[in-house]
Amino acid sequence: MANDAKNSGDLRDQPFAKLVAQLARTQATGVLEVHDPIGVSRAFFVQGVPQGARLSRLKHPIGRILVEGNVLSEDRLNEALAVHNRTDKLLGQILLEMKLLTEEQLSDVMSRQSQLNFLSL
Question: Are residues 31 and 48 in the same domain?
Protein backbone atom coordinates (compact mmCIF):
# COMPACT_ATOMS: atom_id res chain seq x y z
CA MET A 1 0.00 0.00 0.00
CA ALA A 2 1.43 3.38 -1.01
CA ASN A 3 1.96 6.08 1.56
CA ASP A 4 0.96 9.40 -0.01
CA ALA A 5 1.72 11.52 3.05
CA LYS A 6 2.52 15.13 2.28
CA ASN A 7 4.27 17.34 4.76
CA SER A 8 5.40 20.91 4.53
CA GLY A 9 7.41 23.18 6.71
CA ASP A 10 10.06 25.83 6.87
CA LEU A 11 13.77 25.00 6.85
CA ARG A 12 14.23 27.70 9.48
CA ASP A 13 12.21 25.48 11.83
CA GLN A 14 13.81 22.14 10.92
CA PRO A 15 17.26 22.11 9.30
CA PHE A 16 17.71 20.24 6.02
CA ALA A 17 20.19 17.76 7.55
CA LYS A 18 17.68 16.84 10.25
CA LEU A 19 14.98 16.32 7.62
CA VAL A 20 17.27 14.01 5.62
CA ALA A 21 18.08 12.03 8.77
CA GLN A 22 14.36 11.66 9.50
CA LEU A 23 13.68 10.44 5.95
CA ALA A 24 16.49 7.89 6.31
CA ARG A 25 15.23 6.71 9.70
CA THR A 26 11.69 6.20 8.42
CA GLN A 27 12.93 4.69 5.13
CA ALA A 28 10.81 7.17 3.19
CA THR A 29 10.42 6.96 -0.57
CA GLY A 30 9.52 10.10 -2.46
CA VAL A 31 10.55 13.62 -3.29
CA LEU A 32 11.62 16.38 -0.93
CA GLU A 33 10.95 19.75 -2.54
CA VAL A 34 12.78 22.88 -1.47
CA HIS A 35 11.20 26.11 -2.71
CA ASP A 36 13.28 29.26 -3.06
CA PRO A 37 12.85 32.55 -4.97
CA ILE A 38 14.43 31.04 -8.11
CA GLY A 39 12.31 27.90 -8.24
CA VAL A 40 11.98 24.41 -6.82
CA SER A 41 14.83 22.03 -6.07
CA ARG A 42 14.00 18.36 -5.55
CA ALA A 43 15.78 15.59 -3.65
CA PHE A 44 14.77 12.02 -4.48
CA PHE A 45 14.69 9.19 -1.91
CA VAL A 46 14.09 5.44 -2.15
CA GLN A 47 13.61 3.67 1.18
CA GLY A 48 15.37 6.53 2.95
CA VAL A 49 18.42 6.51 0.69
CA PRO A 50 19.12 9.71 -1.28
CA GLN A 51 19.12 8.97 -5.01
CA GLY A 52 20.05 12.43 -6.26
CA ALA A 53 18.56 15.82 -6.83
CA ARG A 54 17.47 18.30 -9.45
CA LEU A 55 18.28 21.91 -8.66
CA SER A 56 16.28 24.98 -9.63
CA ARG A 57 19.50 26.47 -11.01
CA LEU A 58 22.33 24.76 -12.84
CA LYS A 59 25.27 24.41 -10.45
CA HIS A 60 27.04 21.33 -11.74
CA PRO A 61 26.95 21.18 -15.56
CA ILE A 62 27.91 17.83 -17.02
CA GLY A 63 30.56 19.41 -19.23
CA ARG A 64 32.29 21.04 -16.27
CA ILE A 65 32.28 17.75 -14.32
CA LEU A 66 33.85 15.96 -17.30
CA VAL A 67 36.58 18.58 -17.73
CA GLU A 68 37.37 18.70 -14.00
CA GLY A 69 37.52 14.89 -13.98
CA ASN A 70 39.97 14.92 -16.93
CA VAL A 71 37.52 12.89 -19.02
CA LEU A 72 37.13 15.65 -21.61
CA SER A 73 39.36 18.54 -22.66
CA GLU A 74 38.12 22.12 -22.56
CA ASP A 75 38.51 22.32 -26.37
CA ARG A 76 36.41 19.20 -26.98
CA LEU A 77 33.77 20.47 -24.56
CA ASN A 78 33.62 23.77 -26.44
CA GLU A 79 33.17 21.89 -29.74
CA ALA A 80 30.27 19.91 -28.26
CA LEU A 81 28.75 23.05 -26.72
CA ALA A 82 28.87 24.77 -30.13
CA VAL A 83 26.77 21.93 -31.57
CA HIS A 84 24.50 22.01 -28.51
CA ASN A 85 23.89 25.75 -28.95
CA ARG A 86 22.73 25.37 -32.56
CA THR A 87 20.55 22.31 -32.03
CA ASP A 88 17.93 21.16 -29.57
CA LYS A 89 19.97 18.10 -28.58
CA LEU A 90 21.12 17.41 -25.04
CA LEU A 91 24.84 17.78 -24.41
CA GLY A 92 25.15 14.13 -23.38
CA GLN A 93 23.57 13.03 -26.65
CA ILE A 94 26.01 15.20 -28.60
CA LEU A 95 29.00 13.84 -26.68
CA LEU A 96 27.89 10.30 -27.54
CA GLU A 97 27.37 11.16 -31.22
CA MET A 98 30.81 12.80 -31.38
CA LYS A 99 32.22 9.65 -29.73
CA LEU A 100 33.75 11.77 -26.97
CA LEU A 101 32.03 9.64 -24.31
CA THR A 102 30.80 6.10 -23.95
CA GLU A 103 27.32 5.38 -22.65
CA GLU A 104 28.91 4.12 -19.43
CA GLN A 105 30.85 7.38 -18.99
CA LEU A 106 27.69 9.39 -19.61
CA SER A 107 25.79 7.32 -17.07
CA ASP A 108 28.61 7.79 -14.56
CA VAL A 109 28.76 11.56 -15.02
CA MET A 110 24.98 11.87 -14.75
CA SER A 111 25.10 9.95 -11.47
CA ARG A 112 27.90 12.19 -10.24
CA GLN A 113 25.94 15.29 -11.23
CA SER A 114 22.93 14.03 -9.31
CA GLN A 115 25.08 13.40 -6.22
CA LEU A 116 26.62 16.87 -6.42
CA ASN A 117 23.17 18.39 -6.83
CA PHE A 118 21.95 16.60 -3.72
CA LEU A 119 24.90 17.90 -1.73
CA SER A 120 24.15 21.43 -2.99
CA LEU A 121 20.58 21.51 -1.68
Answer: yes
E strand residue ranges, 26-96: 30-36, 39-46, 49-54
Residue 70 and residue 108 in one domain: yes
- Identify the three-state secondary structure at position 46: strand
Q: Under 8 Å CB-to-CB from 15, ≥6 apart: which residues?
A: none
C-alpha distances (whole Å) from 96 to each of 55, 61, 84, 106 are 24, 16, 12, 8
Q: Quote the CA–CA distance of 18 and 22 in Å, as a whole number.
A: 6
Are residues 79 and 114 both part of a single domain? yes
Asked whether residue 3 carries a pLDDT value surpassing 60, the answer given is no
The three-point CA angle 61-64-70 to 5° equals 145
Q: For the residues 38-53, what does the mean pLDDT come to? A: 87
Number of domains the chain contains: 2
pTM to 2 decimal places: 0.63
Shared-domain flag, residues 26 and 66: no
* Structural domain of 39: 1-57
* pLDDT over threshold 70, residue 121: yes
